[in-house]
Amino acid sequence: MKPKTGTDRDTTRSWRPATQRVRGGTMRSEFGETSEAIFLTSGYSYDEAETAAARFRGDDPGMTYSRLQNPTVAMLEERLCLMEGAEACRVQASGMAAMTAALQCQLSAGDHVVSAGALFGSCRWLMTDLLPRFGVEVTIIDGRDTDAWAASVRENTKVCWLETPANPTMDIVDMRAVADIAHDVGARLVVDNAFATPILQRPLEFGADIVTYSATKMMDGQGRVLAGAVLGSEEFVNDELLPFQRNTGPNLSPFNAWVVLKSLETLDLRVRYQSENAKTVAAFLDERIPTLLYPGLSSHPQHDLAMQQMSAGGTIMSLFLDGGREQAHAFLNALELIDISNNIGDSRTLMTHPASTTHYGVGEEGRAEMGITEGMLRLSIGLEDPLDLIDDLDRALAKSGV
Ligand SMILES: *Cc1c(COP(=O)(O)O)cnc(C)c1O
């Protein structure tokens, strides 16, 4: 009997989302295993020399080398495509490998990029340090200001780049408006969707051309592996991303691909549960501290736009204390349950002080421009009971004089 698989596109596209998350992309070997296999192999062998030749010519769909194709990696890519509603996907060794590949595969010297300023620290480095070294000019603007996008695009603008919600400022960017502005000059909109995940927000539905991920975050969701993904049209992925990736080799290991693949089965459950927990904690903090930014609460200045784009507020929020770094560090040090960690999207609740960790390298000027103050903290909510989290936060706030 032919083993059932989840790779026949016509069938899997007709499945409902929960079925796609569990079965989409599954390829079974001749053993009929229920759980997807880990193909830890770098190479493949051929029955005949002519088969090898046919594969390299592209006349035979089989695999040749794991920098080019791997079954476990392919299963993850197909499942991500279904979840994002994208035509094609390639995964990379980390979120930053994904961001770098997404930019370098389509940019050349003389091109121009417009980027929102509020970005993950390393993404900002790509814009301010890496791209200019290769002759790509980058204009950095306040992503919340739609007029600034319109005023900054030019004839040679190839990419408009943003995060929404942004790390760690929780800025929300109007994806539809920016997509229209980008398309008017023939540029593409790339959205780094790490914070919302495809469960809460699907940027392609708002006009984005390319979606990028740090799959290290909610997709793995249990703090185990680094991974990244780039999704878009078949044309973009096959003609631009794939030649870059196959020849430069930022590939994800099959083992790490398997970890993320299995995690996708529960992504919806985790994101929705952690988002509910986050809302409960945010409601407490909103009353208790000077300023809280959580897209799911009406106190967020862009709450309405956030709720047009996202189906819930997400798992992450930013806290602003009045007492600067001293008070922020004292608060972190007073936590007994919540871990001090610069990671996000874990089953454990984690808190960090961006100015001295994730955004230290951005420098004082960059932080000021982005609105990252010395009293700011970023909180990523996990799967614990939110009442225990509130107890811990309440105790630590009191102890640090908030
Ligand atoms: C973490 C993160 C990245 C980088 O991902 P890695 O997996 O750590 O390389 C990029 N963008 C955003 C928004 C992130 O949160």
Task: Describe the structure in your own words.
- The chain is built from 16 helices and 12 strands.
- By secondary structure, the protein is an alpha/beta fold.
- The protein has 2 domains: 9-264, 3-Layer(aba) Sandwich (Aspartate Aminotransferase, domain 2), CATH 3.40.640.10; 267-399, Aspartate Aminotransferase, domain 1 (Alpha-Beta Complex).
- It has a 7-stranded mixed sheet, sandwiched between helices. A 5-stranded mixed sheet has the order 8-9-12-11-10.
- Helix 9 (197-200) links the parallel strand 5 and strand 6 (210-214).
- The radius of gyration is 22 Å and the shape is globular.
- The N and C termini lie far apart (66 Å).
- The model has no long low-confidence stretch (mean pLDDT 96).
